[in-house]
Amino acid sequence: MHITCLLADRVELWDRILQVIHQSPTSCIYLAGDFNSVIRECERPGRRVVSSRRDLNTFDNLIRDSELIDLPLHGRYYTWYMPNGSSKRRIDRILINEDWMLRWLISYQRGLRRSLSDHCPNILDINDKYWGPKPFRFINAWSSHEGFKEFITGRWSSYDIKGWGGFVLKEKFKRLKEDLKVWNR
Prior knowledge:
Blueprint: H1 7-23, E1 30-34, H2 49-65, E2 68-70, E3 73-74, E4 80-81, E5 88-89, E6 92-97, H3 98-103, E7 108-111, E8 122-125, H4 148-158, H5 165-184
Parallel strand pairs: 3-7
Antiparallel strand pairs: 1-6, 2-6, 4-5, 7-8
């Protein structure tokens, strides 16, 4: 969902959401998106407190009155950045209710890196077994294998990747990892 930037419209929408939640027979509730509001002042550094207290209180009241839970955000603190970097906010979030939390005990939101948008995508994670990408394992015996050094040198120089240095290095390592899996068989 994407919520309007106008406070009066957001207040009206919060009231409608609250009505739907209280009238809903559904047990598990999940709301996610760009709410264009924060819960705490620290989620929008540099903003004047006086002009935004009503917005903050209204959104916080919606969460409290509807008994929603703001899932912890892992991976980053802010979810929106002005393109020139002069401003940042945590306005994207995932809200769930207690029934959801009881069904999926380990639920959290993970903030990913932004690319084209000024928002960072957030994903819901209900798997406590995710430890990130599987690391590359170098097998020491490879280095004593005849032709290993030539294989590495030849493969490394064959990769034609364009971009900035860090990207080229990452992509070469990724391709080398795949080539080593095949070579090791």
